[in-house]
Amino acid sequence: MGVIRSLRLPVLLIVGFFFLGNDLKAQSTYKKRVLETIEVDILTSLYTQEGDNAAVTGGIGTEKLLDFTPTIVISIPLNADDVLTIDAGISAYSSASSSNVNPFDGNGDADAFVESSGASGADVLTSALINYSHSSNDRNTILNGKLSISSEYDYFSFGIGSGITKLFNEKNTEVTLSVNAYFDSWSLIYPIELRNNRYRSATYAPSFTGFNGSARNSYSVGLLIAQILGVNLQGSFSLDLVLQDGLLSTPFQRVYFSDAVDNFVDNFHLADDIERLPNSRFKVAGGTRLNYYISEVFILRTFYRYYQDDWGISSNTAQIELPISIGDNFTLYPSYRFYNQTKADHFAAYNQHLSTDEFYTSDYDLSTFKANQIGFGINYTDLFTDFRIGPIGLKSIDARINRYERDSGLSSLIFMLGTKFIIDY
Amino acid sequence: MIKRLLFGIFVIAISSNCVVLKEYEKVNINDKDMVLGQAQIDRFQGNAQAYREAAAGANGGKTGGGCGCN
């Protein structure tokens, strides 16, 4: 019943949007199309990460990760008002920490700082999203509805969402209200020593009980207000309210208790328990953007976000980007981002929790930390799509590289490449 | 925090009464880099941050759910 109730608002919005679409088609007159041609974006990224605080091994151990994500986004104008967007991709990754769900692969001593050759060390996430948007005749109302699915070995997600945008004030003011719901489920995979009796001994006999449910539901409401503030300045304010319930813990993340006897096989510390977190979480995020057109060469883009949730985490994010136009076709994108957060109430480092606690995690993504990111990008845009092969024209090429460093030791590098084509039809 | 959010709404609301540009005055505003949102290419960075950081939302990307992350 809860799921049906939560689906009611998005479904009503989607149904309303189709009725409105039919009504407006009846009054058709000539008008500029919302999207003139089919657009195809081919995107990819390569992400590498290093760190020594893996959550799978209770806050110590290798976090080495490699992720490759080819993606395609196709936007198709169905008529003058309606656009269908299909967004599909995969994320193929290898993760040293995930491999240590089972560190006993027989290839040398098990160790939290050494990658195992186990099957859990690599996986492919497949995702797809379909979005349908409709613009009114005067282009002052835009409605959209979307469906999404994603799947990997131990996680499945189904999402539904809808939104309405209204433009006022001769299109100087824009207000968007959106709702989204995700219905996710885990395949419950626990650390090997907690699901296999061969590791039990006189000193190692944890009273482990698995989770009762595997569902995770997320519901969000978003509000965006965008405003032109001058001939060279515009800004926006956005607010997201998110409620999550169900299994919010990750089943294979170990926890060690300071009041329990430490048990090792090889160099590997056997789990006392797994991460246990509350089964609900309420998040609030408020963000502002301010973009200033300095000159034909420079534009200043800024972003700030404040975040708070009922797990005790609060966070600040600030980002600045300075696009620099070089001639008619090229733009450079130097950027800097600062992030900080306070720890979740239930976070403690390796071997610091007490067995008497109700909730506990040693996931450093929920710890106190600061992070800095510097980035650089380049864009090539061909305004007239001179480079053509038949009906396919090259519109733009984007390349970005970002270096991210946490003061807790984690660092990552991401390289992103995107190419946009248009297809005449 | 509520005060900060209300302040943000207040600033936008006040500003909205200040200026109404005609379409022909929006040449600079319509520059591709003046768009109020993340560039398509930056989605991957946003996804990585959704895994590595507790905060999410209010930037047009993930808010929670849809992955085994935030």
Give an account of the 3D structure.
- The complex is a heterodimer of chains A (425) and B (70).
- Chain A is built from three helices and 24 strands.
- Chain A has 425 residues and is mostly beta strands.
- In chain A, strand 22 (388-389) and strand 23 (392-406) form a beta hairpin.
- Chain A is elongated.
- The model of chain A is unreliable at 11-28 (pLDDT under 50).
- Chain B has 70 residues and is mainly α.
- Chain B has helices at 2-16, 43-52.
- The longest helix of chain B has 15 residues, at 2-16.
- Chain B is elongated.
- At the A-B interface, strand 1, strand 6, strand 7, strand 8 and strand 9 of A face helix 1 and helix 2 of B.
Q: What would you give as the CATH superfamily of chain A?
A: monomeric porin ompg
Most extensive interface: A-B, 93 and 52 residues
SS-derived structural category of chain A:
mainly beta
Rg from Cα of chain B = 17 Å
Average pLDDT metric of chain A: 92
Approximately what portion of the residues of chain A adopt beta-strand conformation? over 45%
Q: Percent of residues of chain B in beta strands? A: under 5%
Instruction: Give the distance, in angstroms, between the N- and C-terminal Cα atoms of chain A.
Output: 46 Å
CATH class of chain A: Mainly Beta
Radius of gyration of chain A, in Å, reads 25 Å
* Subunit organisation of the chains: heterodimer
Task: Count every beta strand of chain A, where a strand is a DSSP E run of 2 or more residues.
Answer: 24
Q: Total strand count of chain B, please?
A: 0
